[in-house]
Amino acid sequence: MSVKPAKMPEVPTIPSQEQDETIGGRLKRLRLEGGLSQRDLSSPGVSYAYISRIEAGARTPSVKALRLLARKLNVSVEYLETGRDLGEADERELRLGEAELAIRFSEDTQDPERRLAEIRDEALRAGDRIGAARAVAALGFAAAGRGNHLDAVERLEESLDLHRVEPHLRPDVYGTLGQSYAALGAPERAVRLFEECLVMSTEAAPDDSSLHVRFATMLSYALSDTGDHERAAAVVREAAATLSRAGDPYTRVRLYWAAARSIGMAGRTSEALDYVRRAIALLEATDNTLQLARGYLLAASIEADGGNTADAASQLELGESLLGTAPERLDLGFLRIVQSQVAELEQDGALAVKRAREALDVLGDFHGGERGMAVLALARGLALEEDEVGASDAFERAIDLLVVHGRRHDAAKAALFWATFLRDRGHEAKAEPILNRAAELGLAADVEAARNR
Asked: Which domains does the chain have, with CATH numbers?
């Protein structure tokens, strides 16, 4: 889940001076704003009469006069002459930085995205490939934030083509690119990217343990998405071994979170919960409300997978209370999915179906892996409601979505749920090929146990 704040103050736009203000007009305005007369502003070589003619537009000041006048007015020579305090490249960088902040903290990114596209074109015309690459990367972050991962990949790859920056200098670019690969159902590409980033960042910045943990965490997530849970956990353990207890608490939270995810996906829920609890304890100490909310939701999901209804409901209530009134789309979608799981555990099929449909509405056409989990929650709710046709259709869609988006372990669990549902209704022949699919996806031992029941 992304780390973007649910609600931030609106980022102000940096104002610009009127383009038609003359040097004389600007000189007069600055003089009056400073409470100075023309005589006050005069000096040897720059008489008050000379200043009067400049203000009237009858004279153009010399370089010497500009320097003397700018010093007395406490402004730069460039600003007095052009109305701009910065050169063209510096002024473009200022606008670029403002747009990057707006992308990260504004609710509506349409205007900053338009400005970024203009800055990109302007930078390319000026031969500023670094500025253009920054602008394109920010557009990629905006696309990823909307869940449009195909556009995000195109933008971020374009940014790196314009200016190939090292991973330790722009971990946000490489991190978002890899996460978008995984979201598009290509976790193997994410694994290769994060492996390279981990090696390169270790060589370039050997003492930056926080950076190493960041890439190790993302590599662990990508490995989990490919179904390689043991290696995912090993990567996290190796990173944790290099991190001192005095390190950045958020770095340790990332490690615990990654460990919980990879171990939980391998079915070791009690061990996963131990890591989640460690992460929550650290987050409570550092008072990061949004991340704390996400920790509680993850804990609730793990408890629900283990069938612990009361504990799941308790963690879920804490997580929901901390998300606030305007949660991010992905966070709200995940909340509804876990609420559906808890409702199913409480044998409330109607509520499980309702929450799952709400999750699908919130997630829209993006976040394919999470959509797969929402459809799976819907299928289990419909199964509880004894809707055999609707449940079977949803189970099949869930498996397809989860496989396409690299969630093989979850797809295997969906197949096992579906087959069990069919067998309980006496459809052994229909269940058998679905059990085979679950085994192929990695749950051979669970399938054998289900057949022997």
From this structure: 23-83 (1.10.260.40)
Q: How many residues does the chain have?
A: 453
- pLDDT of the residue at 422: 93
What is the signed CA dihedral for 373, 376, 378, 384, rounded to 10 degrees? -140
Give residue 440's pLDDT.
87
**Beta carbons of 428 and 420 less than 8 angstroms apart:** no
Spell out, as residue ranges, where the chain has pLDDT lower than 50. Answer: 1-18, 245-246
